[in-house]
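Researcher: Structure for this, please.
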Amino acid sequence: MELGVRLRVALTDIVLISTSLSLLAQAGDNRQLPPISSTQASSQSSPSTADSRAEEELQKGTSLTRAASFAEAIPHLLAARGRASNEYAASFNLSLCYVATGQPTLAIPILTALRDAGYDNADVNNLLAQAYIGSGQQNKALETFQKASRLAPENEKLYLFVADACMAKQEYEVGLQVVNLGLDHLPGSAHLHYRRGMFLTLLDEFDVGKKDFDQAADLAPESDVAFMAATQKAMFEGNVSEAVRIAREAVKKGHHNYMLLTFLGEALLRSGITEGQPEFAEAREALERSVGERPNYAGSQLALGKLYLLENRLDDAILHLEAAKQLNVNNAAVYSNLATAYRRRGDLQQAQNMLQVLSNLNQAQAEKIRAAPGDGKAAYAGSGNAQSHAAEHP
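Model: Predicted structure, token format:
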């Protein structure tokens, strides 16, 4: 089967999935702050001079960041910077929020300032690498990431975070370098094998990549990532019924991970179900559960919006599609479905606005394909076909 066909059945929302996984994970991990060394003490405000209001703002901003309410956290963290006792927490969390909300150029100077102040640790370098990827500075991203890797070579999450940032920006070759470096240090990582399978497939090497999907499943049998790898492999092979079977088995066995719930809902929709069938209700339940568990996960918001659109529940569809748009502004499927929903509701100007954004995204994709060196053009072209086809068919 050619890559374009595989992608049409498997890749609607991988960008949304990866981005959500990475940033939500980092928000959850940012609970233990590194100790402040004597060389770093000068960059901190003393408790006696710390502003009590700033401390409250820092606490609010940190809580919102951990809850993945990134946009809401920003004003609180801005108010805390330079006034709270823990400048590292305020600056790092603010940078994370900027990266999460698609503003990497605002994060870069904050993170470089942290490094200059003595916080030249793996976490700062890793987040800075993601910011460089988001701003299109791939050489700086690799250099900074390699430094993070040297500082913490066996920290699996550092590789996963940067790999997911590469996926979000369609920098598949850079992402492949990242996971290969990770597997040099952690050859038994199921998550890294899963990512490598994704990158290889996107680079038109599915026959090689499917071995990584199998390895991911073998290394962590009966785990969430094992079911995710098996489901994606089936989707890439065009075997939608097998993808449904695997995702359904995962949920039946108690794997109620929001990703797997979304995979199940997406696979059921792709199988051609129609409103009124038991499978349609099953897809709705899976996607509603996923959104309920992680409302900041763009993939399930988009999938649920598409399902409601099939039911002609236009207000509900628009609500979830707009949420997906806020979480990931560069996914073509969001705008295509929003255009349909607004048109059906009679909001013709809004529909036209969505189509204009879609046209701009397609033009940007075409420019990226033209600029891609050598064989990379084919991989980017395949990915673009997947996005546009997925926008037409849930």
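Researcher: Any notable elements?
Model: The first helix runs from residue 3 to 10. The chain has 21 helices and no strands.
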